[in-house]
Design a protein that fits this description.
This protein is α/β, with parallel strands linked by helices. Helix content is about 35%, strand content about 20%. Strand 1, helix 1 and strand 2 (about 30-35) form a beta-alpha-beta unit.
Length: about 140
């Protein structure tokens, strides 16, 4: 099983989550790679695609790098297994619900509900990230 984790992080919180997600996938036996969005191709070849981006502005995806990449990738999500994760500072996670709806509207198959963490991930949040990675490894 090939799992690719693509993320954007401004403060390091979502990057820490991405690292834990990737660790969980590897520990569960997947061939997993971790890519910052700036290094990710528009068409990622993987059995499962795990995407991480924090909430920005008024609960939206980061607009200069991640959103354009995601928008370009959206048509290729039809029928693909996808997982989402990210950190936030305020609000109630609306950005994650909207993001998940966008994936599903494009035909993406969510492997779990989007995983959110308030600010810096604690041990429980990192465990949840590793569990998301392990779920991805099982396809």
């Amino acid at each position: 099983m090939k799992v690719t984790v693509v993320f954007w992080s401004g403060t390091g919180n979502t990057e820490a989550m991405a690292q834990a997600v990737c660790e969980g996938a590897k520990e569960a036996g997947a061939q997993a790679e971790l890519l910052p969005v700036s290094a990710a191709p528009a068409l990622v070849v993987a059995d499962v695609l795990l995407l991480g981006c924090p909430a920005m502005g008024s609960e939206e995806l980061e607009e200069s790098e991640f959103e354009p990449w995601f928008e370009a990738t959206l048509p290729a999500l039809s029928g693909r297994k996808v997982g989402l994760f990210g950190s936030y500072d305020w609000g109630d996670g609306e950005w994650m619900r909207i993001w998940q709806e966008r994936v599903q509207a494009a035909g993406g198959v969510m492997i779990a509900d989007g995983l959110i963490c308030n600010n810096t991930p604690d041990a429980a949040a990192l465990d949840a990230c590793r569990a998301l990675g392990a779920a991805a490894a099982k396809g």
